[in-house]
UniProtKB/TrEMBL annotation:
Reaction catalysed by this enzyme: tRNA(Trp) + L-tryptophan + ATP = L-tryptophyl-tRNA(Trp) + AMP + diphosphate + H(+)
Family: Belongs to the class-I aminoacyl-tRNA synthetase family.
Source organism: Cellulomonas alba
GO MF: tryptophan-tRNA ligase activity
Major localization class: cytoplasm
Binding locations of ATP: Q9, P10, T11, G18, N19, G147, E148, D149, I187
Protein name per its UniProtKB record: Tryptophan--tRNA ligase
Keyword terms: Aminoacyl-tRNA synthetase, ATP-binding, Cytoplasm, Ligase, Nucleotide-binding, Protein biosynthesis
Length: 333
């Protein structure tokens, strides 16, 4: 079976609906017929300089949300990035093969460094995509399920993989492919439906966090920005707000957009929002219950993560050894 690899940053107490629909639901679906590895990328989260106790807590909470969403440790390997030192080691090798200009062209880095200025931007933010490439290449990954915002990072990963293979031999690493499902690749902010939903949104009302109070979530959905027409129709250019609500509705209910458009013919935005609020709450309540079960048993959670780290190292160590050897580093005997 094909190897799947993906990860999320533990930079918030809760994942949001964009993380869930853009990535996590695909992770769960890809457990059938594939060989998946899912990682909590805590080293990436250090780029925002979190409080140590907060980072540790969020790492466990992120893992518990993977489990609550249906990531099943008997079918997926689940681990924490910092438990496998090979990630940092391969990052160095890849850093030496990445052009300064090439790294400077990453749009996420350009946005963040523009916002924080030169002095407020740490070097970790700059090399962040190289660490991400190391994550993926260490496991001979075929497919990487992510949202649209990670596409450029995956292109860099592919370029680096091809560069390694050109320099050191065609079979040095596997060149991965992005796995981006169009319908949910970009979930938008409820208040600003042309911007992606993100934990750093300008208003909290645009965000649906998976661990938010369901009453608050229902209210946010009922007050989502739409437009001044009346028609419920999927048209991302003319009706971004309504289209985003339809995308979320379709993904959570399994109903097609066409089916939804049909059943809301002649009805108003208020009806759509009220029903969608019910659909989201019906998903969130059992999700939150499962999350708390996993979080309230830290010994079991840590055991799952320890087992995952051990199995991950067994895969990553020989790949790193291969790259070290072919790079000309003297073997330590
Ligand atoms: P992160 O932690 O920002 O986001 C986790 C996943 O959620 C997706 N996503 C979205 N999808 C649809 N709509 C949205 N509004 C939305 N917001 C976020 C992201 O695309 C991502 O799939 N660099 C990565 C983490 C990472 C990684 C990796 C991913 C590190 N190493 C290796 C894959 C493979 C990131 O910051 O994701």
């Amino acid at each position: 079976p094909q190897r799947i690899f993906s990860g999320m940053q533990p930079t918030s107490d809760s994942l949001h609906l964009g993380n869930y629909l853009g990535a996590l639901t695909q992770w769960v679906a890809l457990q059938d017929g594939y060989d998946p590895i899912y990682c909590v990328v805590d080293l990436h989260a250090l780029t925002v300089n979190p409080e140590p106790a907060v980072l540790r807590e969020r790492t466990r909470r992120t893992a518990a949300q993977y489990l609550a969403a249906g990531v099943d440790p008997s079918r997926s390997l689940l681990f924490v990035q910092s438990h496998v030192p090979e990630h940092a080691q391969l990052t160095w090798i890849l850093s030496c093969l990445t052009g300064y200009g090439e790294a400077s062209r990453m749009t996420q880095f350009k946005d963040k460094s523009a916002k924080h200025g030169n002095e407020g931007t740490n070097v970790g933010l700059f090399t962040y995509p190289i660490l991400m490439a190391a994550d993926i290449l260490l496991y001979d990954t075929a497919l990487v399920p992510v949202g649209e915002d990670q596409r450029q990072h995956l292109e860099l990963t592919r370029d680096l993989a091809q560069r390694l293979n050109a320099r050191f031999g065609a079979d040095t690493v596997v060149v991965p492919e992005p796995y981006i499902v169009k319908a949910t690749a970009k979930i938008y902010d409820l208040q600003e439906p042309t911007a992606k939903m993100s934990k750093t949104a300008s208003s909290p009302n645009g965000l649906v966090e998976l661990l938010d109070d369901p009453k608050v979530v229902a209210k946010r959905i009922r007050s989502a920005v739409t437009d001044t027409e009346r028609e419920i129709r999927f048209d991302t250019a003319a009706k971004p707000g309504v289209s985003n609500l339809l995308s979320i509705y379709s993904a959570l209910s399994g109903r097609t957009i066409t089916d939804l458009e049909g059943s809301y013919e002649g009805k108003g935005y208020g009806d759509l929002k009220k029903d969608l609020a019910d659909v989201v709450v019906a998903f969130l309540e059992p999700f939150q219950a499962r999350f708390h079960e996993f979080l309230d048993d830290p010994a079991q959670l840590d055991a799952v993560l320890a087992d995952g780290a051990e199995r991950a190292r067994e895969i990553a160590a020989p790949v790193l050894a291969r790259v070290y050897d072919r790079s000309g580093l003297l073997p330590a005997r």
